[in-house]
Amino acid sequence: MELTELLNHIKVIQVAGNVQRKDVSGIEHDSRKVKKNSVFVAIKGYKTDGHLFVMDAINKGAVAVVVAEDNNIPDEIFIHADIAKIVVHNTRIALAELSKGFYKDPTSKLKLVGITGTNGKTTTAFIIKNIFEMAGIKTGLIGTIANYIGSEKIDAKLTTPESNELNDFFLQMLNNGCKNAVMEVSSHSLVLNRVYGLNFSGAVFTNITSDHLDFHLTFENYLNSKKILFDILPSNSVAVVNADDDSSKYIVSDSKAKILTYGRNEISDYVISSIRYDLNGTNFTITNSGKSFEVKTKLIGEFNAYNCTAAFAIADSFGIDKEKIISGIETTPFVPGRFEVIGTGIKKAIVDYSHTADSLEKAILALRQIIGNERQLVTVFGCGGDRDKTKRPVMGKVATELSDLVIITSDNPRTENPNQIINDIKQGVVKNNFIVIENRYEAIKYAIKKSKEDAAILIAGKGHETYQEINGVRDHFSDQEIAREFLS
């Protein structure tokens, strides 16, 4: 696509330099990835400002640079380099619009489902993908654990990538025969316009509890960020929301989409009842339009009955046969690090990504429901550094209140002092049933070796992650591998 044609996709305030009639080779926001005839979009981030790297992009052969309205980069630099300087109001929106144009608007040709909420996004995405594929529809996925183009797995760095990477992924999905796509939509991505311009056919709201307040500052801001997804849905789309969450009505209050609800609430369109679960899976009933369907899944816990029902509702709204939906739910494998059971003996470890107070509470309660009050329940957890500090004491309270023994340890301390994070957690403890072992490997080892023979050990916080980040350095670390080592 020629630069002159591509620029028709954005609202330009000013142009300086030379707009050459050259084919654009790519759209980049990272100057390190710029190659000859790329368009470089300078984005002001939270750690650095892309405007500082404009000269790098020029030196690497960019054919145009898109900058913000208030930039201080002289026009003479662009004139001398014989390239275009494009000034816009918002470079994040410009990146999304340029990417949509360059990659031929791929989501207009896919049936795209977005999933947002504090908990359950990853699992719900995997279930929906499996349902679609069991119905014979090749499906792509973008999410926290990995991205998939059909069956091809691509490692993920962000829950929701930047808009240029997203549109590239979606085009690859189309070129590989995908008809549908499902993606996790983070609150960050909605505020930062990463999904701007995407054409969603459906969206799911799982739930909302306090999280990411380091970024959003207030719960109201966090809630409003989630609402953006439903505000942008077109009238021919569907919004599936958790009726048991008090925020669901507000989330869809301005949505043009068809609204479908799910939950235990009997006025829901998809009513969940008779939930039963153990370490082998979950059985429950979904009632819709007066008809009841018995559903079973390998996934464990009441929260997974909700995730499955959200997936059921989306697939049903897309016209997939209900028996195929039930089969898709039943055959969905364990999602890595989502209430993943480890151990062949009586003693079990459960690795779970629960890293908020709400998800930790649900995980502990689900485990207690399974093992009863006679067996020992041990919880190993920490909190991530450089993230929402308000949840730390609340998680300390939840863990000590509901567990028999708690081992407070490190998660990903990042650039924070691990002991300070642990001290923040300790501010909320309500019982003297905890110990501190800062080294996560030693904490898991202690929990497994020193617990009772029939204990259940919840290892919470990191889930699928295979690294631990300390002082900005990521080293290999897997809760699953360590649990297997000491349960073997």
From TrEMBL:
Catalytic reaction(s) noted: UDP-N-acetyl-alpha-D-muramoyl-L-alanyl-D-glutamate + meso-2,6-diaminopimelate + ATP = UDP-N-acetyl-alpha-D-muramoyl-L-alanyl-gamma-D-glutamyl-meso-2,6-diaminopimelate + ADP + phosphate + H(+)
Location(s), subcellular: Cytoplasm
Positions with a binding annotation for UDP-N-acetyl-alpha-D-muramoyl-L-alanyl-D-glutamate: 31, 159-160, 186, 194
Keywords per UniProt: ATP-binding, Cell cycle, Cell division, Cell shape, Cell wall biogenesis/degradation, Cytoplasm, Ligase, Magnesium, Nucleotide-binding, Peptidoglycan synthesis
GO CC field: cytoplasm
GO biological process terms held by the UniProt record: cell division; cell wall organization; peptidoglycan biosynthetic process; regulation of cell shape
Record has Hydrolase as a keyword: no
Occurrences of domain Mur ligase central (ranges): 115-315
Gene Ontology molecular functions: ATP binding; magnesium ion binding; UDP-N-acetylmuramoylalanyl-D-glutamate-2,6-diaminopimelate ligase activity
Motif (Meso-diaminopimelate recognition motif): 411-414
Class in the EC hierarchy, top level: ligase
Location of the Mur ligase C-terminal domain: 337-463
Entry keyword RNA-binding: no
Residue positions where N6-carboxylysine is found in the record: 226
Binding-site residues, meso-2,6-diaminopimelate: 387, 411-414, 461, 465
Pathway the protein takes part in: Cell wall biogenesis; peptidoglycan biosynthesis
Domain Mur ligase N-terminal catalytic positions: 24-103
Function statement: Catalyzes the addition of meso-diaminopimelic acid to the nucleotide precursor UDP-N-acetylmuramoyl-L-alanyl-D-glutamate (UMAG) in the biosynthesis of bacterial cell-wall peptidoglycan.
Family designation: Belongs to the MurCDEF family. MurE subfamily.
Record protein name field: UDP-N-acetylmuramoyl-L-alanyl-D-glutamate--2,6-diaminopimelate ligase
Organism the protein comes from: Ignavibacterium album (strain DSM 19864 / JCM 16511 / NBRC 101810 / Mat9-16)
Record gene name: murE
